[in-house]
Design brief:
- The chain is mainly alpha-helical and about 160 residues long.
- It is built from seven helices and five strands, in the order H-H-E-H-E-H-E-H-H-H-E-E.
- The strands form two sheets. A three-stranded parallel β-sheet has the order 1-2-3, sandwiched between helices. Strands 4-5 form a two-stranded antiparallel ribbon.
- Helix 3 links the parallel strand 1 and strand 2 (about 70).
- The longest helix has 18 residues, at about 110-125.
- It is globular and about 60 Å long.
- The termini are far apart.
């Protein structure tokens, strides 16, 4: 519902040649775009009715792809982003802070590169599918997982 307002803002700022509103895209398109992105920006906020998005798969995918991330401290985002190490967090609705974080990473490519590297390592270490499955099974059954594939996993007594 905000698309017309966003398009007008883009035009007013003379950014039509630099900003593309792509809408819903197939996963392969998103993966390709993320692989060439220098910075991933996501300004998520809690809705008036309290609704929030989840931890943010798009955020995890961006970190895994090697983009520097600038996001709001929204719901579970801070579980993935260690502020100042694997990305930069801004408070919800704080547009000035988010803009400052974007400018910081564009002006300091060495810091951005370090964050991209740290973010990718964090995703590989903490959010890889097998790691998450083991944590879930341990939490559900209070026992470590035995075996390396779903077919061979068993719960230790």
């Amino acid at each position: 519902p905000e698309r017309a307002t966003v398009e007008k803002t883009i035009a007013d700022l003379n950014l039509i040649a630099k900003v593309a509103l792509r809408g819903a895209r197939p996963h392969a398109d998103v993966k390709q775009a993320l692989s060439s992105a220098a910075i991933f920006v996501q300004h998520s906020v809690t809705a008036e009715n309290g609704d929030q998005e989840s931890q943010g798969i798009s955020l995890i995918e961006a970190m895994a792809s090697g983009a520097a991330v600038v996001v709001t401290d929204h719901n579970g985002f801070s579980e993935a982003v260690i502020n100042g190490e694997t990305g930069l967090l801004s408070p919800e609705h704080d547009v000035e802070s988010m803009a400052a974080n974007i400018v910081e990473l564009t002006r300091n490519p060495i810091r951005a590169a370090k964050m991209r590297h740290a973010a990718r390592l964090r995703v590989e270490r903490e959010f890889e599918a097998n790691t998450l499955a083991k944590r879930l099974q341990t939490a559900m059954f209070r026992h470590p997982v035995v075996g390396s594939s779903p077919a061979t996993r068993a719960v230790q007594p």
